[in-house]
Amino acid sequence: MNHTKTFALGLALAALPLTGFAQETAVVVEEVEAVAPGFDEIGPYIMTTLLFLVGGFLVFWMAAGFAMLEAGLVRSKNVTTQLTKNIALFSIAAIMYWLVGFNLMYPGDGWWMAGYVGPFFSITSLEPVGLAADAAALDYASVASDFFFQLMFCATTASIVSGTLAERIKLWPFLIFVVVLTGFIYPIEASWQWGGGWLSEAGFSDFAGSTLVHAAGGFAALAGAIVLGPRLGKYAKDGKVVPMPGSNLALATLGTFILWLGWFGFNGGSQLAAGTVGDITDVGRIFANTNMAAASGAVAALILTQIMYGKVDLTMVLNGALAGLVSITAGPLDPSLFGALWIGAVGGVIVVFTVPMLDKFKIDDVVGAIPVHLIAGFWGTLVVPVYTADASFGTQILGFVAIGAFVFITSLIVWFILKATMGIRVSEEAEINGLDVSELGMEAYPEFSKG
Amino acid sequence: MNHTKTFALGLALAALPLTGFAQETAVVVEEVEAVAPGFDEIGPYIMTTLLFLVGGFLVFWMAAGFAMLEAGLVRSKNVTTQLTKNIALFSIAAIMYWLVGFNLMYPGDGWWMAGYVGPFFSITSLEPVGLAADAAALDYASVASDFFFQLMFCATTASIVSGTLAERIKLWPFLIFVVVLTGFIYPIEASWQWGGGWLSEAGFSDFAGSTLVHAAGGFAALAGAIVLGPRLGKYAKDGKVVPMPGSNLALATLGTFILWLGWFGFNGGSQLAAGTVGDITDVGRIFANTNMAAASGAVAALILTQIMYGKVDLTMVLNGALAGLVSITAGPLDPSLFGALWIGAVGGVIVVFTVPMLDKFKIDDVVGAIPVHLIAGFWGTLVVPVYTADASFGTQILGFVAIGAFVFITSLIVWFILKATMGIRVSEEAEINGLDVSELGMEAYPEFSKG
Amino acid sequence: MNHTKTFALGLALAALPLTGFAQETAVVVEEVEAVAPGFDEIGPYIMTTLLFLVGGFLVFWMAAGFAMLEAGLVRSKNVTTQLTKNIALFSIAAIMYWLVGFNLMYPGDGWWMAGYVGPFFSITSLEPVGLAADAAALDYASVASDFFFQLMFCATTASIVSGTLAERIKLWPFLIFVVVLTGFIYPIEASWQWGGGWLSEAGFSDFAGSTLVHAAGGFAALAGAIVLGPRLGKYAKDGKVVPMPGSNLALATLGTFILWLGWFGFNGGSQLAAGTVGDITDVGRIFANTNMAAASGAVAALILTQIMYGKVDLTMVLNGALAGLVSITAGPLDPSLFGALWIGAVGGVIVVFTVPMLDKFKIDDVVGAIPVHLIAGFWGTLVVPVYTADASFGTQILGFVAIGAFVFITSLIVWFILKATMGIRVSEEAEINGLDVSELGMEAYPEFSKG
After folding, report:
1. How high does pLDDT run on average in chain B?
2. DSSP 8-state code for residue A296
3. What is the model's pLDDT at position C450?
4. Contact check, Cβ <8 Å, A442/C281
């Protein structure tokens, strides 16, 4: 009831015992409201919670995607170790993000804490069973669903690292790095933006994490690759780069398709709302753009490798699709489909050019994770202002550099400490025999003779 | 309103000028409506959009299913090529359907165009970011989500073709065919029915695409197989058919499970609505029927191969499940579970009988896509009137023949042009050495010696 | 406002132009109610139906997970057979659960029957197409979606059995056992709890089936393993256990990730409601707890195998994750995240200790299904009262023992009958040559020479 009407009504009711009438009016309204909280009020909460759960299980699935991609791109003698790292890193991330990460990442937001979670560095708790509608923050979603969703992003960051460092890193030092990365490094830098920190206030724009997740993972991997050094025999004395082809391209392709699928949850879920027409429509835009960028990244790499090398290179096409996905991740909502097309295509082009470039610096990135996640991540972050009005190139670069520097330096320190204390690299003999036999005593394909 | 209040109200209103009261009452109603558009109005839009997004990612997943199925059923020397074709065809479909297909397929429906998309053959645009509730077509779903969902069907049609033509077709002519198929052939024929075209007006019934997607893909594959010819050595001079077993039945089985999973989105999403009790209940019916038809197709092939050959044939069981799925796709809603059972079982039987039949015509279909998608697609289309009241056998046959003829003839022309210009078949030497080494220079399993 | 009240109101308003007022007031109320059944009423039905469909397709996906896990853990000469069993058992379960199981499992609930389904042992029917809102049980979900969801649990029970008995059981006797298990044994014991039977009335608590599904499958497998005997050469005459490593750990890891993903549907969907704030929030809790238990199970096995054997054992880590999942399944809602952590971790520890223990009894469980599903299932069932107020240790043990005894004894009888009539074990020669060549004449990896 607006004021004008109230006033007009007041005049009309001049002869009326005012209290009685007011009471009656209230009753009518109360009757309507007595259905509350109805779907009008709880619908958005339910839909956004559902978005986090569906988005979360899709991003969980990316852990399997990384595992398959990496298992397919390493040589068969290192497959068991690569699989072990992937399932272990996800599991460790799940525990560390609960133990430390989640509250460290969202320090300033009273909502997170209210009633359920304790102070900094404490263990995250969930809302009570059978939460009453009036006890819920109906303008958002359940804490548990949000925790579940955000955890998957933390784990993804760690997944990126394992591919680069494959085939020569020891298992346990790698897992200890994962503990630090998922418990501290990622939550701190992610907090700068998604926890409402200084980057967010500076106007940095990274919708689903081209920088916060992908470049961050890439920087942690880069630091590790520098400290660890290349695989034996990768760079011959005459300067030639020795190709070490992956053992199972069917698995690598499967991994790429899994990641592509999971990315719908990664980007779509990052809308963080699904209970209004505007929000669910935006989630739809994000799905369509995400798919387009992946497709154009793949096609760009397909065409470019044909032109440059005279033949298509499947691993480049796979990495092209992934680079397209990383590229659109900083801004999957605002671009048109044509925008997503060219942003993703540039991502695919970047991969084709930067994979050989890394080899020039003798940085041995087994699966191409640095080009895909760090360099395409930079591209995706940089291009945001083209379509997003309130973003600026300066701030985008600032954010990328700040997060990159923080993750790179802290990772470098951790890698150096690990190297100095327990050592991070297997022996030459172990590397030549393969980590599966030497570290785990278990081959992935024990019955198939090696060519 | 309780009695006390009613009584008090009555007394208080004794002297009231009635108009004033009426006005107040009106205000009350406005207050109630002011919450609008509430979930009553936007709920169906949100749920249907969600259906398209979930359905769409499930159908996307079918692209991975085809890739794994086909990679598992070709010989190891052609696996990299088969994987490359699959990820490339999906990516090309995603671009072509945006560039041409979607608007070509839905030409007559003002809704599609309104504000977002241009005329024929133009590029599809999405609705603006943060769409207001009153700007949305609340009786349907977001354009982006629908585009995303429909695109996956277009891509599926192309996926069907790649399996049949495996192990001897050149990569680029195949991809050019995909450009034509996904940009023009599929959208035109699909438009006849789903775009509100003449077949739809004639009363043709094809709920999720037994004919429009599966048989269409099968006809395009058949045309290609005829123009391309069989693999070297497949049909010996003495008339014997030489078996060329797939290199990895674990992958083929995985692919089948992926397709089965994706099919819930394929058929369930084709309800095109999920925001009413009737619609969501129908989606449930479709899930149950789709699962039943797949199961009965598998069991039929299981039993039949045991009876006919004295032993179960896994590839037939996999294709039986897929044939069951194709069979139910034209009408997954109306049959009872018993209906789905026998429709799917007949699909499984069809596969067991028609796979060898194709060999008699020396049509070399590497993965059995023509029996599964074309022949079971015909069966599924034909059987619709048994359970669907407003369908007729005559119209079903008309639709199948019309679409079959159109796709077959246009495909044949495209294949002939490609053959005449750039050639579609690799050299004999390349075919013997395998396309992976000869065309791409990259083996899928480089370390495993071949038996 | 009902007529009586309107009448009373009318009398009280003696001085008022009566008809006008009453009419107007009535209009106000009617206008509000005329929107019915709006989303307030149908929203919960739609959301719960959606939960069953999404949960159901996730649990369906577990069938693929079991197939990949088992195919990866058997030797390559038995892979085709293992894949065949897995797709066949799911298909048979789908048919048997419809033909008998569903109605046998829910005998006493009028809701199931009303209008759609017939008496005991009859065929399950679905609700009619285009169900009207006022014909639906709006406080629950669609029958079809529930049937779809419940069917997947029945199939899961059967999936558990196939892994244990791999590499020496004949195909058809195994499938006949599946017919009995999915049509009768599982539905009867599940009915005791989920069908509202005596265990449910006794206060037994098994949220998603640690006992009803997992331990039941484990007991059926145990009975089979005893009747069938170990693989040739598994237990050497000198008492040593001969390791028979799985042929493809990449597949086994993929299978584990698939199962982990599917488990979100398994446990989350078992909330059986998603249309209120409390329910969807609970589903979120369940997702978070389920993930935590899997992660801690994996980490526990990771650390423990390192400590016990001096090196990490990937297959134990995979089984540790699965044991964590089984452990949390009886009560995934009530524990805190810390509760899920230690419950899952104990599950992981159990697997590491009980896998070798089974070998001492010369029970040959090829994939470790008995430790994972039966023993961790017991643990998960037993621990429920720690977090669930209305559960007691006594009743939990009673339920486990009752179901265990029923499933074990009936399974034992069926296995003995099968052994006595058609025989359940392949010949020694067939076992040595592998079931793929001897039973199916089709190798899974025909081109790869065996080491």
Report:
1. 89
2. H
3. 63
4. no
Give residue-wise pLDDT tens across range C9-41: 333 333 333 333 333 443 344 444 444 477 778
Task: Render C288-344 in DSSP notation, one character per residue.
Answer: HHHHHHHHHHHHHHHHHHHHHHSS--HHHHHHHHHHHHHHHHTSSSSS-HHHHHHHH
Q: Do C444 and B295 touch (CB under 8 A)?
A: no
Token pair for A195: 């926890």
Residue B273, classed as helix, strand or coil, is coil
Which chain B positions have a beta carbon within 8 Å of C61's beta carbon? 257, 261
From C145, which residue of chain B is nearest by alpha-carbon distance?
B284
B89-112: pLDDT as tens digits: 999 999 999 988 988 888 755 434
The tokens of C310 are what? 């001096």
Residues C426 and C169: beta-carbon distance below 8 Å:
yes
d(C-alpha B256, C-alpha B244), whole Å: 19
Q: State residue B279 phi and psi, 5-degree precision.
A: -70, -50
Q: Is residue C20 part of a domain?
A: no
How sure is the predictor about A449, in pLDDT bands with cuts at 50, 70 and 90? Answer: low
CA distance C279 to C53: 16
- The CATH number of whichever domain residue B317 belongs to comes to 1.10.3430.10
Those residues with Cβ within 8 angstroms of residue B63's Cβ, 6 or more apart along the chain or in another chain: A257, B86, B87, B90, B152, B155, B156, B159
Choose among C254, C275, C451: nearest Cβ to A448.
C451
Mean pLDDT confidence for A243-259: 97
| Nearest-by-CA chain C residue for B445 | C448
Cβ pair A15:B16 closer than 8 A:
yes
Q: Return the residue of B nearest to A44 by Cα.
A: B39
Interface test with C, best of A35, A46, A435 (most C CBs within 10 A): A46
Flag whether C203 is in a domain: yes
Residues of A in contact with B246 (CB under 8 A): none
Tell if the CB–CB gap between B12 and A16 is shorter than 8 Å.
yes
Of C21, C83, C141, the CB nearest to B250: C83
Mutation to test the B interface, candidates A1, A11, A24, A450, most B Cβ within 10 Å: A24
- Cβ distance A370 to A204 under 8 Å? no
Q: Is residue C28 one of the residues assigned to a domain? A: no
Q: Of A38-42, A220-224, C122-126, C430-434, which range is least confident?
A: C122-126
Question: Which chain A residue shows the shortest CA-CA distance from C247?
Answer: A445
- How many domains does chain C divide into? 1
| Angstroms from C406 CA to nearest CA on chain A | 33
Please give the residue range of the domain that contains residue A276: 40-440
Tokens of A102: 């989640």
Is B412 a domain residue?
yes
- Dihedral in degrees, nearest 10, Cα atoms A51, A54, A60, A66: -100
User: In this predicted structure, what is the pLDDT of residue C108?
Assistant: 58
